[in-house]
Design brief:
The protein is α+β, with helices and mostly antiparallel strands and 458 residues long. It has 14 helices and 15 strands. It has three domains: 168 residues, 2-Layer Sandwich (Dna Ligase, domain 1), CATH 3.30.1490; 101 residues, 2-Layer Sandwich (D-amino Acid Aminotransferase, Chain A, domain 1), CATH 3.30.470.20; 120 residues, no CATH class.
Length: 458
């Protein structure tokens, strides 16, 4: 058992859901307090109750009656005394007197980038009393052997699955929702989508109700559209707060996520964060990359809108000017070279490679590998043939490149000539520069200005 915040250091033992909540809490987001019953507790329970053969049922993807019998055996087996005492001691230590509680599964194979397992495992709400907590923990464990979970595991090719359980204070919600930091059904990457319902969010997550839907501009907080759902009419208060929350969480994780959240006590509280596994967004004129921006930690993490705008301005101006000088871009062409996605700056490697492909001998694979970009194509990719015709067509670029190199060398020479240099000769081997910019002899030993070396100095 570990407190929820400590799950950051125990990802494998705490499960992905607990880890993401712990990461959010560590970053200062509002997360209900609680603790995690790690996977070690389940393994100990299986061993001490003689149910260790359940692991084989998972690995063999057994279906139907065998799974039902095993779940019943797990739920009815007497609690091992030491494990029961440890769980209740954790409850008394970290959630003393708190009620009601939410007891939630945290599978080791859920909420991952490739598959989310959303809504597959068990959550028990409104739990009060120690015996009810013990029963709820076992109910979450048993859901690992649910037939639907078995199907998901088999499709995902996920072996060695296990289950941790989160026990935390339940938010008494007047409204609940799922906030997608990027609307997964298309549109711009700057649009968030909130699906909301009154009260608890269990019916929403399980798909039993049609939610109210609000599309938000993630930067301004403006509500772009509103779709009516089931139940009472809902008005979205504080859309700017939600838009800012979506932007902050996405920037923190560095990818689009969907957030399960509840509104109670006048604020939104985060209950879950998982990667969005299906996104219809297609970035324009791509592909885009962070290669080179990652070098030297320049933009390895999220950046503020001001910093992102500086990157965009610098890249768009300098890269376009360079491609124009090399005759690889026409004056009327104004491609977008840099922009932000998901809180981080990216540059348009597709546009740059389209320009580079006009040069005979250009090799897309060599270009990508030099930048550290993993090629997504077979062979050399764009590799224009080196022929007399292609060389003649590239002569303007070759001449422009030669002129560009010459201009840089001339600039370096001008800078070199304008830089003051220490004169040679004189009785002292050291020289120092005065406030007026003139060079004066200095003592080579003490480096102080002098008109004639003192005794012992040369």
């Amino acid at each position: 058992m570990v407190p929820l915040e400590a799950a950051v250091a125990h990802r494998d033992a705490a499960g992905a859901k607990a880890w993401s909540l712990a990461e959010l809490a560590r970053a200062g987001f509002a997360v209900p307090p609680g603790f995690v019953v790690t996977t070690a507790a389940l393994e100990a329970y299986l061993e001490e109750t003689g149910l260790a053969f359940g692991r084989e049922l998972l690995s063999r993807s057994v279906m139907g009656p065998q799974l039902s019998r095993f779940r019943a055996a797990l739920l009815e087996a007497p609690w091992p005394a030491s494990l029961r005492a440890l769980l209740l001691a954790s409850l008394r230590q970290w959630l003393p007197g708190v009620a009601p509680l939410a007891v939630r599964s945290s599978g080791t194979h859920e909420d991952l980038e490739g598959h989310s397992f959303a809504g597959v495992y068990r959550t028990v709400l409104g739990v009060t009393g120690e015996e009810a907590v013990l029963d709820a923990v076992r109910a979450c464990w048993a859901s690992l052997w649910d037939e639907g979970a078995s199907v998901h595991l088999r499709r995902a090719g996920a072996g060695g699955a296990s289950m941790a359980v989160i026990v935390q204070q339940q938010v008494l919600a007047d409204a609940s929702g799922v906030l997608f930091t990027v609307a997964p059904d298309g549109g711009s990457d700057g649009e968030a989508l909130l699906e909301m319902t009154a009260g608890s969010g269990e019916a929403l997550v399980s798909g039993r109700v049609r939610p109210w839907r609000f599309r938000l501009d993630r930067r301004s907080g403006e509500v772009r559209s509103r779709e009516v759902g089931d139940g009472p009419a809902l008005e979205l208060s504080g859309p700017g707060e939600l838009a800012q929350l979506a932007a902050r969480v996405q920037a923190h994780f560095g990818r689009p996520v969907d957030l399960e959240l509840a509104h109670g006590g006048g604020r939104w509280t985060l209950l879950q964060a998982r990667p969005i596994t299906a996104l219809a967004l297609r970035p324009p004129d791509g592909p885009w990359t962070t290669a080179n921006l990652r070098e030297g930690n320049v933009a390895a993490g999220e950046c503020s809108p001001l910093m992102a705008s500086l990157y965009e301005s610098a890249f768009d101006d300098s890269m376009r000017a360079y491609l124009l000088r090399l005759r690889l871009l026409r004056e009327e062409e104004r491609p977008r070279i840099c922009r932000s996605f998901f809180g981080r700056p990216y540059w348009n490697v597709g546009e740059v490679k389209r320009a580079g492909a006009k040069i005979p001998g250009f090799n897309e694979r060599a270009f990508d590998e030099d930048l550290g970009i993993a090629p997504s194509y077979e062979g050399d990719g764009r590799a224009p043939p080196l022929t007399a015709r292609s060389v003649l067509g590239a002569l303007p670029t070759v001449l422009a490149l030669q002129w560009s190199y010459g201009a840089i060398l001339r600039q370096v020479r001008r800078f070199h000539r304008a830089t003051p240099r220490a004169p040679s000769g004189g009785r002292c081997r050291g020289w120092t520069r005065s406030r007026t910019g003139r060079w004066r002899p200095a003592c080579a030993r003490c480096w102080r200005p002098c008109t004639s070396p003192p005794s012992g100095c040369t």
